[in-house]
Structures are given as C-alpha cells and as structure tokens.
Amino acid sequence: MAHEHNHEEELHVQHITVIDENGNEQLCEVIHVHESPEFGKSYVFYSMVGAEEDEDGSVEIFVSSFVPSENGEDGELAPIETEAEWDMVEDVLNALEDENED
C-alpha cells in the first residue's frame, strides 16, 4: 500500500478531546508535548478550541500528564500529582512563553 505524503499535514494542528468533570467532550488544541525523564512521563500542554482571549490576548493553558495507550494512537490524561511536577511544568511553560516572545 502506497502512502501519499502531504506536506500540509506536517503543519496540521494536533487536537485532542478532553472529557470534563460533567462528562462533556471538549475539543482542545495541543500546544506542546514535553517528555520528562526525571518523572518518566509525558506532559501535554493544551487549550480549548474557541477559547476567548483575556484582555492581555492570552488563553488559558491546561497541562496534564499523558500515558499513551499500547497502540500509540491515543491515551489517557491524568492530573499532575506533585509540587515537583508542577514546578517542572511551570519552567517548561515559561520557556515556551519566552520562545514565543522572540
């Protein structure tokens, strides 16, 4: 089977579906994925698709740890559990913000 390579797909924004505490599905845009050897986990930074910007032009960013499924196509998001993880996540987010300012 031949695989057609589409360069536009490389620029495609990745989306995930998050289920909120009320069981509603929310489409989210993946901003960044960070692999942490220190914690042995991946972390996904995302925002809600269609989220309104605040007066500073910012949207709320969410972060969860990510455990991929065995097939590698999807997985489970889990809450960040420790202060050390939050500190690492904040450092990554600050670095991302600094990159975007340049």
The best one-word shape is: globular
CA-CA gap between termini: 43 Å
Structural class: alpha+beta
What is the helix content? 10-25%
**Integer-rounded radius of gyration:** 15 Å
Organism: Lysinibacillus macroides
Protein name: UPF0473 protein ADM90_17750
InterPro entries: UPF0473
Pfam families: DUF1292
What labels would you give this structure?
five-stranded antiparallel sheet; disordered N terminus; alpha+beta; 102 residues; single chain; 23% helix; 35% strand
Summarize the structure.
This is UPF0473 protein ADM90_17750. The chain has 102 residues and is an alpha+beta fold.
List the helices and strands and how they pair.
Blueprint: H1 7-10, E1 15-19, E2 25-36, E3 41-48, E4 62-68, E5 75-78, H2 83-101
Antiparallel strand pairs: 1-2, 2-3, 3-4, 4-5
Architecture overview:
The chain is built from 2 helices and 5 strands. A 5-stranded antiparallel β-sheet has the order 1-2-3-4-5. 23% of the residues lie in helices and 35% in strands. It is globular and about 40 Å long. It has one domain (14-101).
